[in-house]
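Aim 2, interim progress. The first record below pairs a target sequence with its structure tokens.
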Amino acid sequence: MVSEDTAFTSVLEETAKGAFYLFSGGFIATALSALCGIIIARLLGPEDYGAYSLAFTIPFFLTVFTGFGVNSALTRYISSLYRGGRSSRIASIIRIGMIFTLLESIVVYLVGLLFIDWLSTWLINRPELSNPTLYLLPVVVFQAIVNASIGALLGFNDAKRVTYVSIIQQVFRLALAPLLIITGFGLIGALIGNTIAYALAVIPALIYLHHYYALVRDDDNVESGRLLLIQMITYGAPLYVSSVVSSLVDTYRNALLSRIADDYVIGSFNAAFRFVTLITIIMAPISTMLFPAFSRLSNNKAELGKLFTISVKYSSLVVVPAAVLCIVMPREIVAVLLGREYLALTPHYFALISLNYLYVAVGYMVLGSFFSGVGDTRVNLEATVVYAVVFAGLAVPLSGLIGVDGLAYSIVLANGASTIYSLVVARRKHGVSLDYYSTLGVFGAAVSSAIPAYILSTSIQVVGVLPNLLKIVIGGLAYLLIYATLLPKLGVINRGDLDFIVNAFSKIKPLKPLILLIAKYEEKLIKS
């Protein structure tokens, strides 16, 4: 029999390996997406880019009414059954989940098609965008199919193929959207390029899913489709309602933004919002792989609590310094990514929005995966409602007082309230806790290390991509060196942490040299 320690270590190693593949693939996909976004933003300019970003509001609003939480149910049930050697139900789960997703997303698409004029007027206050948005509406169906396929693939712990789907989608976006703009199609060309890319991503997603479906089909114990669907929707309902609430809040934000700002300001704000994905490429793979990891340990309270504490600590070690660097050097980052045309407003919004990711130190990145993994999805819904209530209560008065800045502050404060609520519930219901000393230590090291980068950013003003890139490189390297030096000196990491990190990540060959180099440097500091 496998010991509990061995099983826990195995889960950690699988999570680390899957997170690496999602990070590396996610990094490539996000880099391609960011590059595509940069090119589109530069080609369209702030005003047309504002219209471009508003056009996505309607299809993304409609997308949230697809799936009914089936994506998350596919991940949880497949993960639990596949790891437990009980594959007889998996084929039925995949078949019912995918058929339901396809049919239901088509219905949502048709509803959007019917009410496009009304949606353009009331959601984004831009009736002139109703015709361009029609070219983007099929994304509702394509994205629903891809999301369901990815949910199933994550259940099989196949992070590699999940990243391949994302990369393929972004390659086609990068190839098509800018090309169609350059050839004279402008805003509509950018929207059509996105739609085609979403459609082409469906092909590899279904091919990869069929590979696993074929493996478990022979063991299929055919169940009532109706009962199985009810079971999946029952599990996923709180997550689905949560996503609906989140979408309504996002739509409310865009609707409010469209009424208090012109397209230039909207383009500047949404460009900042979009390119904070420089931080989310670190967050997404970790939080995604933690969902099935928490699911596999959901029956072992001690190991579950241990995984939670470790996950929050190690994710904050990486994400918090990245967020702080974005806060202290926003002008340089925006200058390199978007160019001089966006320097008037976007750096300010970029720094404000980056504040959200400081909450990673208290579980912002881990709590959603934790509750989904243990099957307590209702808490995720409650946390989303807390976010919605706080945001809705603050957005109008703050935006009335200080304009678009008020929206940014409302988002930051609402995220804080939601995270604190989830943390309190996690501690009360499941007995998990944070390593508070490490949390304070990470903040102390991150803020202290940022002082040289901040001085460099504020004291030397340069023009052009290469000079600003050089500032980022110099400031970033100085920041990372000081940060890595302070962590062991402040007692945030010790020899046990180094052993854990080396054991968890050294089996990933591409990372091994870097991990061993960092571990060697940290070990010398610990011994000194």
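The second target in this work package is listed in the same format:
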Amino acid sequence: MRELFTLIKVNMQDMLDGKFKHRIYIFLAGLAIMLAMAYYTMILMTSLPKELYYIVVYIMGAASLFFTFITTISLSFGYIIGFKDHDLLLSLPLKPSNIYLSKLLGLIIVNLLYYLCFMLPSMLCYGIMAKMEISYYLLMIFGMIFQPLAIIAIGTMISLLFAKFSGNGRYRQLITNLFTVIFVILIMALSFSFSSLEQGTQATGVFYSLYEKIKIMLPTLYWYISGSIVHDGIKVLLSICINVLILSLFVRFSNKMLFKLNQNYSEEYHDAKFKIKGIQTSSTFITLLKKELKGFFLNFNYFFNLGIGSVMSILALLYLLFNYHDELNTLLAMMPQEMIETGFLCSCLIIAFMNMIDCTSCVSISLEGKTLWILKSLPIDVMEVFLAKILVNFIIVFFSSLLDLLIIIFIIPVNYVYIIMAMILFALISIFVGCFGLVINLKFPKLVWDREIIVIKQSLSSFLSVISLMIIGIAIGIAGYYLSISLNTLISLMFLIIGYLITDILLFFLLKKWGKRKFMALSN
């Protein structure tokens, strides 16, 4: 037991490692999420009668568990599968079961913090608005800590199965990525089908319908929330026991699988019948580009966390196209042409907002880590390194935006001039995202790390880039909408194109002057 506590302590110190101001930024980010969830909960509650406020708590609880489920799948690779110090820890006189259990507890703690950021504000808002007694708060806090345990166990098991089925071949990471993306798409499609509404359905009926589905699909969540509301400690205790039991069963039966999977992940792919068939040569830039593309698509955490937004935007548009095509056509037939064009612009700006979040360049320099000195020592122009990293971001954002645009054209038919201008706008936005993320990563690099997931999800450059791009996307969307109303859609698109073009040029020269000096001054 002492050995286990020592491992947990080391893992926690590693998780909290970093400058004090970085920890402050992370704390402020968590606080911002909690305030946003509290505000959203209050809005939902005000749309319902007072006696139905409790339904919002169930909906927010289900959403929190869903988010925890997705983050568990994302974080499992790097925390308990393929972690960097696996061989080092096994070489020490430690029990493998304690090693894996300490890693699993680290994963649970991280996901629990995410869960609390989403769930705690909703429960508190309900308690305040419904004027609940002190026993509600005691049961709520006591039971909340245990609620995501079963979901974390299930999500981790799914990650283990993905890793097992992907094998130990040359493209195991790519196969794992495909498995995960397909699974997330299926989950999203299932959630869309649950939330699909018939025309004329009122909000109260929709909320109550979701509540009935949650009671059936998430019984432990139902027992926990209902037990807290009616002050029934037995229900809360039953919910806790089931969650702990599922996690315990997972821990008991997953040790052997974890050991085998991590042994496979620690081995590099090799071909027993390897023969040199020829030597392929490429230019310096093409070689750098191939390196960046391979690093993105074959890195599960990189791909899943900074590329999934594009997949989700395409999925959402396909859902609208196939489920509400007739309703949208009827609505468009009643609208004047000016309003249709404004709707087209707003759709494009929403697409841009969703795809801007996929900023791969914001961590691309940090991911060089201990190998950065190799890149700096090669006879390569620094701008070629920058352009390769920017181009990867351009490929992801621009081509996913084009797919989104193709779907929108089927929904909102407009003149070809608007389509061409939208394509130009998406190209400039893609360049902007790549340059902006690179500038932020140069300003706030994190070159010392033991797991790539720390750089991708927990670094300051990743947080600042995503938050800043979200704010910029919202601001540009609002400005574009009001410009379209005040002037017209064509002029609004021209203003946006000119604005992004000027910004891209400024960022390019910033990288050429300041960026090159900053890159050469970086050290591990």
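The longest helix spans residues 96-129. This observation will shape the mutagenesis plan for the next reporting period.
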